Amino acid sequence: MSNQLTRRLALLDDDAHRGLLLQGLRGIERETLRVDGQGHLARTAHPVKLGSALTHPQITTDYAEALLEFITPAEHDIGLALHRLDAIHRYAYSKLDGELLWSQSMPCELPAEKDIEIAWYGKSNLGMLKHVYRRGLALRYGKAMQCIAGIHYNYSLPEELWQLLAEHEGITEERRNALRDFQSESYIATIRNFRRYSWLLMYLFGASPTLSTGFLRGREHNLETLSDDTLFLPYATSLRMSDLGYQNDAQSGLRPHENSLESYVTSLMDAVKRPYPPYAEIGTKKDGEWVQLSTNILQIENEYYSTIRPKRVIRTGERPVQALCARGVQYIEVRCLDVDPFEPVGIALETGRFLDAFLLFCALEESPLINAMEGQVHARNFARTVKEGRRPGLTLTRNDHEVLLKDWAEELLERIRPVAELLDHEHNYKGAHMDALNAQKAKVADPDKTPSARVLQEVRTLGSFAQFGLRQSKLHAEAFRTEPLMPAETALFDEMARVSLAEQAQVEATDTGSFDDFVAAYNSSTLCRNS
């Protein structure tokens, strides 16, 4: 362990500070496609019984109209967040009228591009802004890409913990906003360590080694054929996170600097403001209809597809970068996790326990700045793992040397072990985090235990990516439908749906000004007040 990690662990293990680790927050966002009973993309509108996709706090849509997104409240314990996620699934199944929730990250069999509906949020200016943004995504990446699903893991440590670390490391409040800046830069340091080590998450939790042949829409690829409807790579862990996923040429050179919050924000601001000639040729309107919000590299800052983001809860009318500039980083959002097709809610409790240990390790461990060449190495290690992570003898680059992925993974798990022990000690979880860590150690020792290997084996047995996805979707649906929510829980969700529909109606009734003016004001808004 580094001196910093040893020192910080000892500080948090002190009797006076042990309660701090109980005060962090966890939240999950799970994306999932609605499909029909044959495993084809649902062509129906977002079910009104679920509420408004624009204003509902827990049930919305993401890119495609059929891509549901379930959002848990932030909880102090990941177990409780997963319980909330389970309840959302059970409620959704009570309103789906025979449709299923797709069990995999990579999409089901999709119709022609023209027949994939973009998410609709109503006729208000705000709703149209969200819809036109997605029109732009369809233009830039294709509609099939808008059907990919993932798990987002939101993670924060309490402000009191950052304050404690700041005080013990000589940071005082003499300088204005010193503690806020320490917290922000500590989260940015956490993200740098995540960049160094996130290949490990792809090996341990990647679950998309196969995909439907039709997904690629004729694109060139180096995948192998498993069957008429299935492509794969034999040692892949996550094709979703490979270059086949949500990427394009415009973003290929975009590498926001994460050596400081200021450099990160500046690089995103530049991409939102910088024109991209191929998009400029298209323009923002076609035949009088909006087709994208701008002709710049990014329409809005959230278009940058990253494996992890610094985040701040935004206020009404505020942009994400404005919130970061004004009040600093509040939490981080891990975005690289595949949906686990063996888990009804898409993620296991054991996975959450390990993520908590992994992210706390990233937060407490030393995190030197990353230069451009090092950044390329980290990206290459990640890319190698998602396409070849289970290949025997696979090496990654560390400190200018090639090391076996297996050896590095074992070393990294041992470095995380004291963090898992601390979490178990502080939380009185009776070894839950250590059990989760040991389960990951078993995957490193035996690649056949990884989700990607298990998925590939099941798909080989069935002979079809689609058949495996449909089988798992039906199994999960049966589990949720045979144990519905209690009436009181259902009533709470019903009320949430009713309120959300009323809120959307209110937004639409009180709208003023044209959509053109609304977009102009949005695009011209000062991204950072101190810029």
Automatic annotation (TrEMBL):
Q: Which Pfam families match?
A: Glu_cys_ligase (PF04262)
Give the enzyme class. ligase
Pathway(s)? Sulfur metabolism; glutathione biosynthesis; glutathione from L-cysteine and L-glutamate: step 1/2
Record EC number:
6.3.2.2
Q: Whose protein is this, by species?
A: Massilia cellulosiltytica
Instruction: Tell me if Translocase is a UniProt keyword of this record.
Output: no
Q: Which GO terms describe its molecular function?
A: ATP binding; glutamate-cysteine ligase activity; metal ion binding
Protein known as: Glutamate--cysteine ligase
What family does this chain come from, according to its entry? Belongs to the glutamate--cysteine ligase type 1 family. Type 1 subfamily.
Instruction: Report the catalytic activity.
Output: L-cysteine + L-glutamate + ATP = gamma-L-glutamyl-L-cysteine + ADP + phosphate + H(+)
Domain of life according to the entry:
Bacteria
Q: Which residues form the Glutamate--cysteine ligase domain?
A: 10-383
Any GO BP annotation: glutathione biosynthetic process
Q: Which GO terms describe its cellular component?
A: cytosol
User: Which InterPro entries does its entry note?
Assistant: Gln_synth/guanido_kin_cat_dom (IPR014746), Glu_cys_ligase (IPR007370), Glut_cys_ligase (IPR006334)
The alphabetized UniProt keywords are: ATP-binding, Glutathione biosynthesis, Ligase, Nucleotide-binding
